[in-house]
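just leaving the lab so this will be short. below you get a single protein, a line of residues and a line of whole numbers that encode the local backbone shape. id like you to explain what the token line says about the fold, in plain words if possible. thanks a lot i owe you, the record is right below:

…
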Amino acid sequence: MIEKLMTASLVTEVDSVSMRFIGAYKTTGLNTDPHLANMFTTLEPLSLTLTSSINRIKSESILEEKDADRDMQVRSLFYLVMGFIHHPDPAVKAAAQVVEKVLDHYGLSITGESYSTESSLISSMLNDLSKQKLLDAIALLSGCAETIVALQSAQNEFEAARIIWEQEKAMESTQQTATTIKKEILSLINDKLVIYLRAMEVVDEAVYGDFARTIAEIIAENNEVVKKRYKKEEPAGL
């Protein structure tokens, strides 16, 4: 008998299962069954919306990574220049002081600002560092120019990731959340599709048997993964 999809399945697991269901259904000739057709007509857009919601979550994670990358480059620049302040060569030390004056105007605390504020401050700082007087000083500090280039690159990558995140976020604002969609898909699968296929496999095994077994296998594979995850999370001795 076909199992029901475990409600403890992750959003990504439900998304994967629903996509596999749709793919399997499209390889059959069961589109003439109005009941199944209605279920999959409902399931397909829900699956697409869930995938979009997951993509938004992924884009947010990527944005956080890109923000951490640029924070690291900001700190690298500050620490590099701070080191040159103590350089024994007077010319190098003087050059470091020129660059340090610009950095101190912004402060290392910019890494703790909001995304928008930090982007604005970094852009302004990079603009100040591109002025000729600063370029002459930077040229005397080994590795400084390369660090600034790395910071500019990290800033560009952050802004590109932010555009994608904002687009995904705007799209999701007009849609349901991933958790809500997951519940709808679980209800459709467990309360309608599974129940229907259980019955039709008995009534007409020749027509529905292969598809029912495919659905059963997909659900069983998913549920086994969920069960294994729960076993790992069980406290020792229980």
